[in-house]
UniProtKB/TrEMBL annotation:
This is Carbon monoxide dehydrogenase. It comes from Geosporobacter subterraneus DSM 17957. The keyword 4Fe-4S applies. Its EC number is 1.2.7.4. InterPro entries: CO_DH_a-bundle (IPR016101), CODH (IPR010047), HCP/CODH (IPR004137), Prismane-like_a/b-sand (IPR016099), Prismane-like_sf (IPR011254). GO terms for molecular function: 4 iron, 4 sulfur cluster binding; anaerobic carbon-monoxide dehydrogenase activity; hydroxylamine reductase activity; nickel cation binding; peroxidase activity. It catalyses: CO + 2 oxidized [2Fe-2S]-[ferredoxin] + H2O = 2 reduced [2Fe-2S]-[ferredoxin] + CO2 + 2 H(+).
Length: 631
């Protein structure tokens, strides 16, 4: 099934790139070619421009070129400092996204646009955080909980609340290492301070601080992003969707929703269902409004509303190349500025909505949360009115699309697992069945496959090859972000994909009625993976690092991915990177990441660009862990 997909997919990709040439459009491939060979210093992480005495490019090869920067910083320090700043930027991005969601919850009201959709989750969180709930209006509770969350960003004392959700053994590791993050903003500020000229000059200390900052993402910003989005917009449940550019519809107004935060996209979904908007679409000659998601926004709206997915990160330019998109609506993160010149070649409107991510040349229609639906309608109206400008002769929509099931929140997974016991007699409501099948060896282990697309790797190829190898070897896959969208496109989140699984996994899939690859959501939803791993560890009275599990980022590209990789390792889970990070210029940093960090956190980084070799390494590490556990 997926082999067939890969060949089909390449055909449509090639067709669109040919169309780009005919239409005189420049794509990322033209720009990549113009870039020629990448800068060797940047690639190794040994270029420093932190102060104006530099930039300093140093050569760690003995006797050749500068050995230290002008201030005396070594390759180890420069590489570690650059990496730490990537972690800070990644943590800031996920966490600022979460802050906005918490603000939205603070303004939620019964008669407003933003409502509480999962009251149980809110009440559970309120009791976890010691907020009184009896005899109180649910919105009063929501506002107090939101205020506590907002204080997690800048509180002067204490450490992050969600850390308490981790297994006791993991908390002890964090305490021993003194890497429990304090306030989220504080960790980001501290690491920026420590990487200023003339501050920390020790690679190990920088990587140690990076882990603390990254944990402020995984167990702070990202977890707040996930939990608060569920409370406001609903905890996802499994539902069918379709993915790939074939979801675009020639007869409808096509709107691409791209970016990350669900607040805007939720309102666009509501606005597009509004009878006034539907009527307007008919009036301009369209059969309706077709929303299609992209990147993490795509994941947010598909798992809560079944909105189809146009594609992942790499396909943002491709979507416009179809000539059939009336508007690309974006908020923050992973948006190519090239969408300006490329949309100018067609009738497509490129609409930015966040003051945090304005792009020169785009149409900026600011999304105001306090009049959210009104703002969303204004944006949708722009798209509809643009339908009449579509040039029929420029339209080419590839036919490829796949169906799949998305929306496996932790709650949904537990509910499915209850199917292994008789749900009418004794629903367990716990992760026990998963722990049992892992212990018994029916499943050898579990992996999270996450992250982006990167032109250094063939589009989606590493994601899909690694997923296929995992499931064939009875390793269940959970996936988020653009990797999850690759899985849907390849048909791997389809329940039929159990045909590709080993016997043990196929049996579990059949009993529990799940596909072998579970779509868990967007990048911030990696916090769901941390939660599941933690629950299995608690159930088995183990630490996360004892479990036969791993994190894999086959085609990562963003600073957010660097933060994720660091918090996953700090959480005790091995992380396999399919793209080499810019750290190879320092032997010490490489040694810490791929070796010494294991003695600290029980997990380490593996760097391997060949997806097949990477998959073999994951499988042998999983067996190593099983052997240690005697299972
Ligand atoms: Fe050069 Fe040091 Fe300034 Fe970096 S901080 S640019 S290594 S002088
Ligand atoms: S959108 S961070 S390209 S996964 Fe979250 Fe995709 Fe990576 Fe952006």
């Amino acid at each position: 099934m997926s082999d067939q997909f890969i060949s089909i997919y390449q055909t449509s990709e090639e067709q669109l790139l040919e169309k780009a040439v005919q239409d005189g459009v420049e794509t990322m491939w033209d720009r990549k070619a113009a870039m020629k060979a990448p800068c060797g210093f940047g690639e190794k992480g040994i270029c420093c421009r932190i102060c104006a005495m530099g930039p300093c490019r140093i050569s760690p090869v003995a006797g050749k070129g500068a050995q230290r920067g002008i201030c005396g910083a070594t390759a180890d320090v420069i590489v570690a400092r650059n990496l730490a700043r990537m972690v800070a930027a990644g943590t800031a991005s996920h966490s600022d996204h979460a802050r906005d969601i918490a603000h939205v919850m603070h303004m939620a009201s019964r008669d407003g646009n933003f409502k509480i959709r999962d009251e149980k989750k809110l009440l559970d969180l309120a009791s976890e955080w010691g907020v009184k709930t009896e005899d109180r209006d649910i919105y009063e509770v929501a506002h107090e909980v939101a205020e506590i969350a907002l204080n997690e960003f800048g509180k002067p004392f204490g450490t992050l609340r969600f850390l308490e959700r981790a297994p006791e053994k993991r908390k002890k590791v964090w305490d021993d290492l003194q890497i429990r993050p304090r306030a989220i903003d504080r960790e980001i500020a501290t690491i920026l301070h420590s990487t200023h000229i003339g501050c920390t000059g020790d690679a190990e200390s920088l990587l140690h601080m990076s882990m603390r900052t990254a944990l402020a993402d995984g167990w702070g910003g990202s977890m707040i992003g996930t939990v608060f989005s569920d409370i406001l917009y609903g905890t996802p449940v499994p539902r069918e969707t379709e993915s790939n550019l074939g979801v675009l519809d020639e007869k409808q107004v096509n709107i691409i929703l791209h970016g990350h935060e669900p607040s805007l996209s939720e309102m666009i979904v509501m606005a597009s269902l509004d009878p006034e908007m539907q009527k307007l679409a008919k009036k301009v000659g369209a059969e309706g409004i077709n929303l299609a998601g992209m990147c993490c926004t795509g994941n947010e709206v598909t798992m809560r509303h079944g909105v189809k997915i146009a594609g992942n990160f790499y396909q943002q330019e491709m979507a416009v190349l179809t000539g059939a998109v009336e508007a690309v609506i974006v908020d923050v993160q992973c948006i190519f500025p090239s969408l300006v010149p490329i949309t100018e070649c067609y009738h497509t409107k490129f609409i930015t909505t966040s003051p945090k991510a304005k792009i020169t040349g785009a149409t900026h229609i600011e999304f105001h949360e306090d009049r959210a639906l009104e703002s969303a309608k204004a944006i949708v109206r722009e798209a509809i009115e643009n339908f009449k400008n579509r040039k029929k002769e420029k339209v080419f929509i590839p036919t490829e699309k796949s169906s799949g099931v998305v929306g496996y929140s932790v709650e949904a997974i537990i509910k499915q697992l209850d199917k292994v016991v008789n749900p009418h007699i004794d629903p367990m409501g716990t992760i026990k069945p998963l722990a049992d099948v892992i212990k018994a060896g029916v499943l050898r282990g579990a992996v999270g496959i996450v992250g982006c697309n990167n032109p250094k790797s063939k589009h989606d190829y590493s994601h899909i090859e690694i997923m296929k190898k995992m499931i064939a070897n009875d390793v269940i896959v959970v996936t988020t972000g653009c990797a999850a969208q690759a899985a849907v496109k390849a048909g791997l989140t389809n329940k039929d994909a159990r045909k590709l699984a080993g016997q043990g996994l196929a049996t579990v899939c059949e009993l529990v009625d799940i596909p072998p690859v579970l779509h868990l959501g967007s990048c911030v939803d990696i916090s769901r993976i941390m939660t599941i791993v933690g629950e299995v560890a608690k159930h088995m009275d183990l630490d996360n690092s004892d479990l036969p599990v791993a994190g894999i980022a086959p085609e990562w590209m963003s600073e957010k991915a660097v933060a994720i990789a660091n918090y996953v390792v700090a959480t005790g889970i091995d992380t396999f990177l399919g793209i080499t990070p810019p750290v190879t210029g320092s032997e010490e940093v490489m040694d810490i990441m791929t070796n010494r960090v294991e003695a600290m956190t029980g997990a380490k980084f593996f760097i391997e660009e060949d997806p097949h070799v990477l998959a073999d390494k994951v499988l042998s590490r999983i067996e190593e862990k099983r052997q240690k556990l005697g299972i």
